From TrEMBL:
Keywords: Oxidoreductase. GO terms for molecular function: FMN binding; riboflavin reductase (NADPH) activity. InterPro entries: Flavin_Rdtase-like_dom, NADH-dep_flavin_reductase, Split_barrel_FMN-bd. This is Flavin reductase family protein. It comes from Streptomyces chromofuscus. Transmembrane segments: none annotated. Residues 24-168 form the Flavin reductase like domain.
């Protein structure tokens, strides 16, 4: 016997957006902070869209809203920093996600890294990448970048984002 059609399946676009958000709240994602250097100083934001793209050459991707305060710098940056956050860095993740926050003021500790990219201290791992492409994707841009350096030797377990909040792995 055929299933009864779901009236929500043919509802307007807003329902599709709500469905999309509801489904992705079920998807646990690692948390990263993306940084870049602008003429007026460093910029950065929290990203949960970080993904490996290719091992040869080493490429990664992330998404950013074009309406974000960081986009003006990211749209022209030749190099960016990618920082994998640890479970002990929930406050840092929240700071870099908050609009209008002083992201590079205390308690954030950072330094100028390779290619002038701001590098955050105390993270489990970080990379410096050369921007390879910026692909329009709705109200975002998909940024593809090639790894040129970094350090995977920091301590800590990864920070996750799930159900709209930061969390840690459970044993």
């Amino acid at each position: 016997m055929p299933a009864t059609p779901d009236p929500a399946a043919s509802s307007p676009r807003a329902a599709a957006t709500d469905l999309f958000r509801a489904v992705f709240r079920q998807h646990a994602a690692g948390v990263a902070v993306i940084t870049a250097r602008g003429d007026s100083g460093p910029v950065g934001f929290t990203a949960t869209s970080l993904a490996s793209v290719s091992a040869e050459p080493p490429l990664l991707s992330f998404n950013t809203r074009t309406a974000s305060s960081s986009w003006a710098v990211l749209s022209g940056a030749a190099h960016i920093g990618v920082h994998i956050l640890g479970e002990h860095q929930q406050e840092m993740a929240a700071t870099f996600a908050r609009s209008g926050a002083d992201r590079f003021g205390p308690p954030t500790v950072w330094r100028d890294g390779p290619e002038g990219v701001p590098v955050l201290d105390g993270v489990p791992a970080w990379l410096v990448c050369r921007v390879h492409a910026r692909v329009p994707a709705g109200d975002h841009r998909l940024v593809i970048a090639e790894v040129v350096g970094g350090d995977p030797a920091g301590a800590g377990r990864p920070l996750l984002y799930h159900q709209g909040r930061f969390t840690a792995l459970r044993e």
